[in-house]
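Shapes recur. Our protein:

. . .
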Amino acid sequence: MVFRDLWLLAGPVLIGVGAGTGQPMITGIGVVVLIVGAASRLWARYLFRRVSARAELSEARAFQGEQVELRFEVENRKLLPLPWFDLRLTISDEIEVDGETPAAASAPGLSWLTRRGALGWYERRRWRLRISASERGQFQIGPTQIQSADLLGIFPRFWDSPAMTPFIAYPRVFALDDLGFPADRPMGEAKGRNRVFEDPLRIAGVRDYEPGDPLRRIDWKATARHGELQSRVYEPSAVQHLYVLLNIDTLEHSWEGYLKDELERTVSIAASLAVWATGRRYA
């Protein structure tokens, strides 16, 4: 940068040499150098004023392998253009881009989506991509870095937008018959004596108090009207409860680590059961 600033010193030196030696050509060259250097310096100084970059997703959550749309843009809201730009949008390595291979980033676990071009005054550039996650987890999109310079490229500048967009990928789910479970009764025959429960949010009426009724069942307004303790009667609600308990140990000892493929398969089976139960109104 110090070498580039010598442009601003070379102009007055040439002007002085030309004036001292009586050489108008050298003086003219010094004036041109001074004007070009000062204009380039000012251009670079205000290059990224009112410049913005933004990235957004059509869906912030998706299942593993499911594609969503990534939209990102850069906008210049001033008269001074960007003669050229080199944009780098940082994404996690686990994010796959349809039809494009991201460039390797300097930080481990991250890649770059790169775009190049020029940005005129009050111009906006937009890009749309289809992305998906190769693994489950939470991943990042952003920050964004843009490099540009003045018209002659004398004073390059970098600008960073720290904004990040999180992307959450749920485990891959399958139909239960694909996993070998019976599609109609994957949990087997559901038999039991306590299938009907009372729903405390649905009051059917009141009745006389019976010994053993809890205090929260007593309806004090009805008690005041009747002059005797009255207990609420709730409508029945047939609710089936399903608990999905997952053992994530894939080896005999936890300190041995884990087998990634086995763990992901187990998580997918548990997620598939949870999705199936949700669709059948299990609690």
